[in-house]
Amino acid sequence: MKISARNRLKGTITEVVKGATTAHVRIDVGGSIVTASITNDAVDELGLAVGQQAYAIVKASDVMVAVD
């Protein structure tokens, strides 16, 4: 895979929940869960399944940090 994004988090899919049009895909990245909202079509095209290795790729113009 070649991609310009540098924020690639490799992990294991722990859950895929399809809705009417959008799915939530949860990826375990070193004990932390990252959740992505993608289309059901994307889930099918990528053949996503629980236990499969996948990348969470983060591409954003801003990252915010907060503390209590």
Automatic annotation (TrEMBL):
It comes from the Bacteria. PROSITE patterns: MOP. GO terms for biological process: molybdate ion transport. Pfam families: TOBE. Residues 2-67 form the Mop domain. Keywords: Molybdenum. The keyword Zinc-finger does not apply. The keyword Manganese does not apply. InterPro entries: Mo/tungstate-bd_C_term_dom (IPR008995), Mop_domain (IPR004606), Transp-assoc_OB_typ1 (IPR005116). This is Transporter.
